[in-house]
Amino acid sequence: MKNRLNLLINLLFPVLLVTLAQWIDFRLDFTQDQRYTLNPSTIEILETLDRPIKIEVFLGGKLPADYLRLLGEIKGLIQSMEAYSNKIFIEYIDPYEGASNSAELINEMNEYGISPEYILSEKNQALEQIVIFPWAIVNDGNKTFRIPLITNKLGDSRQEKINRSIAQIEFKFFDAFFKLNSKQKKKLAVLTSHGTSSNKKITDLMKDLQQYYKLASFDMKALEKDPIKTLENLNMFQLLVISNPKNTFSKEEKYIMDQHLINGGKQLWMINPVAINQDSLFNPGGNAVASTIELNMSDIFFKYGFRLEKNLVKDLYCAPIVLATGTQNQTQYLPIPWPYYPLVQPTNHPIGNGISNLWFKFPSTIDTLKSTAKKTVLVTTSDFSQKVKAPINIQLNEASEKLIPSSFNQPSQTLGILIYGNLLSAFKNRIKPFKLDNHAEQGESEMIIFSDGTLAENQLEKGNPLVLGYDKWTNNFYDNKVFLKNSIHYLMNDHELLKIRNKSISIPIFDLESVSQKSNRWRITILILPLLLIAGIGTIFFKYRKSRYSQ
Length: 551
Fold this sequence. Notes:
32% of the residues lie in helices and 26% in strands. With 551 residues, it is an alpha+beta fold.
């Protein structure tokens, strides 16, 4: 009886334990930054998925060690997501499997919008180029979204780039699920009157925003004789985006904008108080006059609690401008620091957390004033800046002059602010341009103002729009698009998109130089230490046997 009981315990109990373990998914995350714990918003959206989602990961093939670590983190994240939803189907694809020609494969992947990444790897004391495709595709049968698995930041080393990419994995998949799961999109309007940015110049940003929101162009002059109808139409939109206006706003239009804001509508302004014709700057003469531009909005802005100053900001920490030197066959194109292009850093706010350098062009300072509304600074220059009052004659040959750090002796200047809270109408106790039955004297709202009208404008290549934030002359990438998308998500109350994106992961980075210097020492230690350990144990055992059995 006892033998049967022992057999039952020793045989059936392990089998029962293994069977139960397949049905129970229990994990503990002991990492300091809770790297493998999903955000509550991610869990919520996974639990509400109502149709199967297929994920295809193309990070396959011959991968360097850093990218294998990234792939392992992706697999760990997807396993965590599968614990909350049975509608996720994953496939890891090696793009090179079955491909006969690498060049044809690269062209084919480029056609699908999956661009390759070229990596130089050292092997057998020789440099080897590896081509990989760090992308994933999420598809629900109706919509398809591409996910770039690599997050680049200007100046990052390869390890820093991989660590940054690992920190952004959850956000990128959540972002795709958010777009797939959006059933009724919020409405966003883009102002097309008043000489604002042309469609081609804001194409890239609008193309991205179209995946989140229902976009519409808004011409404030379309119903110029019916301002009440214009206001009613504008109030249908939660956010109005104004990019680089150049023409004056009338009193009726100012009143429409005011009432839209006071009644809870949000506004994003990208505006230059000083105008400069950059085409003139790059003409053979190489000079242009920066003069003040009058949009007739100063009194409105003053009431809300800020003022756009009539100046330009120069910064010692700046983006380059490409100039030609030499003649004919000896012509060279050199990037030279251009202080009128400040490289600015976002402040510690959910909109700007984790954002790299922003590229501003000919910005002005923003002065905050006392008002009922609260203000938060979003963007500032470095502590080595200089203000120049307009009008001013700007000459391109300034770029060839050596920058004198001592002349940039002014503290950081504000280039972007968030206004929120209780706003008073700019037309309170004033004669109204037209009669409005439900005029609002004050209300809760939010608005963001940047003092660079071109912040949302992408460059063009042969008439085709390029990626916003990419400078085709220097081949540099800046974070303008991500920052503006964050600003719009914030104003549209999609704060969960910011919370997950700002997830911070602390991954130790190897000091490769130190490892290289100490590599021989470690090799010798690893070779000799086991031998010494075995010899020591053998000596102790020998002495023990000798002392015990010698008698």
